[in-house]
Amino acid sequence: MKKVLIVMLAVVCLGLLVTGCTPSQQAGGDTIKLGVNMELSGAVATYGQDTMDGIELAAEELNAAGGVDGKTVELVKYDNKSAVDEAVTLATKLTTQDGVIAILGPATTGPFLAEIPVATDNKVPVITGSATADSVTIDESGKVKEYAFRICFTDSLQGKAAGEFASKNLSLKKAIVLLDNASEYSKGLAKSFSDTFKDNGGTIVAQEAFVAGETDFNAVITKIKDKDFDCMFVSGYYNEAGIIIKQARAQGIDVPIIGGDGYDSPTLAELAGAKACSDVYFANHYTKLDQDEMVVSFYNSFKEKYGKEPNAFNALGYDLVLFACDAASRASELTGEGVKDALAATTNFKGVTGTCRIDENHNPVKSLVVIELQDGKQVKSTRMEF
Question: Please, are residues 183 and 149 in contact by the beta-carbon 8 Å criterion?
């Protein structure tokens, strides 16, 4: 078993030996039941499937190392089919029939937001690894959602990181911003980047919109290509960003192109073409370039199990299990409410995607990385601390 997991589990078990088990924990039997409400089919199935791969690897490794305080991690897994109504139905089943102490997922914002009222009513915490919208853990009045947590950074934080990197690390001064006006993710990311870039003395030369799902962006590229700018911030997902990169390079735009975690897919370089996918930078949760012992161990284990390199969704899925089990090991009792309180009290959780504490809004306070692509390959990563 990997050294880092043995050390982690030894610490967990020692802590529980010192504090002892409450009657509620003893009544919980020999398992720690975690619900998984994930997009395994449907429109965004790749996100859910990748997250699930990481989840299953982490549970397998924990159980091989003896479980958590001798308890086996049991995953109760369901496919929400990328549908909001199905996510709600499954959250109800997991909390009222399956007896889970926490739910991992969904991976995307809409379904995750929809399950939170169910979780709150039944006092079972829900944790997402990849829903980055700022509204996930706080309501419109700014009040924290008591049973909702995440381990990924927010859109505002990654937009800030991209803006800081562009202005300070690359010394860029004039940016063009392209965004999808129909996407909250794209708009939130673009706003945070623009605000940070301007605060650092930069200028947003122009902001133009594109439509998700299109394959020809030449009109908007033609509109901006003759302006005076030294970088482009393309706020969106890899399927549009890859084509925009390809068509921008074809029209002679050779400035750095910057984005967020939506770029994290090998399809980005496939769509752009390897040569065009150079001087591209994006904020992300994880990079295979990190030589941290835990990251290297995860990378090797994942590649051995699945025959492919892990991406950020794989890493976040892995960390979801470790995060939930860390809280379970510290909970006053193995109930949803006990685990919720332990999650909120997290101060030094170490995962593949970084070390974090949970703040008052149930968001992780953690670093992130900006990855540089040359010829479609990751060549360098820069860790940004906030």
Answer: no
